[in-house]
Design goal:
- The protein has helices at residues 3-11, 18-33; strands at residues 44-57, 70-72, 78-81, 87-91, 96-101, 106-111, 117-122, 127-131, 136-140, 148-154, 157-162, 167-171, 177-181, 188-193, 199-204, 208-213, 222-225, 231-236, 243-248, 253-258, 263-269, 274-279, 285-290, 307-313, 316-326, 332-335, 341-348, 352-364.
- The chain is mainly beta and 380 residues long.
- The protein has one domain (40-364): 7 Propeller (Methylamine Dehydrogenase, Chain H).
- It has a 4-stranded antiparallel sheet with strand order 1-28-27-26, with no helix packed on it. The chain has a 4-stranded antiparallel sheet with strand order 2-3-4-5, with no helix packed on it. Strands 6-7-8-9 form a 4-stranded antiparallel sheet, with no helix packed on it.
- The longest helix is centred in the first third of the chain and has 16 residues, at 18-33.
- The protein is globular and about 55 Å long.
Length: 380
């Protein structure tokens, strides 16, 4: 809430409604984004506890970090594109893996916020929207011949990026293109909206990060330079709407940006590829998933370490805590609908896909109140 608005409330004697207005505003943002955030961000930390480790056999994935190959559906279902080009779904409620789309040209996918619809991008540039309730599909009108690399939902519309510098907003009712975001000269590797829906952010394969104002998509608001390699992941801070983080795959760094000034506020230099980053929804922490670059580290069986999962506390970002080291590198990290669980996906060259469900174990940092012990009467 702006200072001018607060002063107007006080001048009219309506400052008692300030907290109610802020609660309503935050609730509206949460409903738009489909996410739940905790009110105790300042006083809690968390660690990840492994709940379920699922090995999907006889199915593989291509290790292409420039395309969006994983997404989360309703009831924490994990959907991903296999190496054959179709879409598989793991349902934790019945521990079953099944194929939900038996095609052979799928390149990217994204579920909407309630998991009722799925947008699929194909290698020939087409985009299809599938409704799980009606079991009907609809193709959006496209004239592209390039692969659809990234897809995002914007309310009831679909945002897509192809091989090239354009980002297009599609109306799923008419199937036509509403707006086109221009200004980035390089191939896009990542794309996401801010939590309040005001800014669109993308990362390119040349290390450039572009930020658009959703009201003016003709030219980017910022062209940020700092990464020296592909920017494979972008995520916005839930407790500060003006801050977001980007992860460089080959420069092995995580950068924190301020959209209000365009400045890089902090850089976390890691020792491995940054494949995916994610802000915790209940604590002031960043979860990062990494790939190759662990300098020849071996596990207990002598197998080279190829991936790691880390958590970085906001007050001490440089000292990350290693949650796990694995022989498979990580493809993506997702958060559950309620923000209580974290899901990681790891493809293996031996026709295996490892899906892990982690519990976000929140700990309170508030000092415990000393309980007064009443003197008990001694009975003789």
């Amino acid at each position: 809430m702006s200072d001018r608005f607060i002063l107007n409330l006080k001048s009219k004697g309506l400052d008692k409604y300030q907290s109610a207005y802020q609660i309503t505003l935050n609730k509206t943002f949460n409903e738009i984004c489909g996410k739940t955030y905790s009110k105790t961000l300042n006083t809690t930390t968390a660690n990840l506890v492994l709940k379920n480790n699922v090995l999907c056999e006889n199915v593989g994935m291509t290790s292409d970090y420039s395309t969006q190959q994983t997404t989360m559906g309703s009831n924490d279902k994990c959907m991903f594109i296999t190496d054959k080009g179709n879409i598989a779904c793991y349902d934790p409620s019945d521990s079953e893996l099944y194929v939900i789309y038996d095609g052979d040209h799928c390149a990217s996918l994204e579920s909407n916020r309630d998991g009722s619809r799925l947008a699929i991008g194909f290698s020939d540039g087409d985009i299809m929207v599938y409704d799980f309730e009606s079991q009907k599909s609809k193709f959006l009108y496209t004239k592209y011949t390039n692969i659809s690399r990234r897809i995002k939902w914007v309310n009831d519309n679909v945002l897509s990026s192809t091989i090239g510098s354009y980002i297009r907003l599609h109306d799923i009712r008419s199937g036509s293109v509403i707006k086109v975001a221009k200004g980035n000269k390089y191939q896009l590797c990542s794309m996401t909206w801010s939590l309040d829906g005001r800014y669109l952010t993308s990362g390119s394969d040349h290390g450039t990060v572009c930020v658009w104002d959703s009201r003016k998509l003709e030219m980017p608001l910022w062209k940020l330079k700092g990464h020296t390699s592909s920017v494979g992941s972008v995520d916005w801070c839930p407790w500060n709407t003006g801050m977001f983080a980007t992860g460089g795959i080959f420069d092995k760094s995580i950068k924190i940006w301020d959209v209000r000034t365009g400045d890089s506020k902090h850089t976390i230099q890691t020792n491995a590829q940054v494949c995916s980053i994610l802000f915790s929804r209940h604590t002031r922490q960043i979860i990062s998933a990494h790939g190759y670059g662990h300098h020849g580290e071996l596990d207990q069986l002598g197998t080279p370490i190829a991936g790691s999962l880390m958590m970085h506390s906001w007050g001490n970002l440089d000292k990350g805590i290693v949650v796990e080291k694995d022989t498979c590198r990580y493809m993506a990290v997702h958060v559950s609908r309620n923000g209580n669980d974290v899901i990681t996906i790891q493809p293996d060259a031996k026709l295996l896909v490892n899906i892990k469900y982690w519990k976000l174990n929140v700990k309170s940092n508030r000092p415990k109140r000393k309980q007064k012990i009443k003197n008990k009467k001694s009975w003789k």
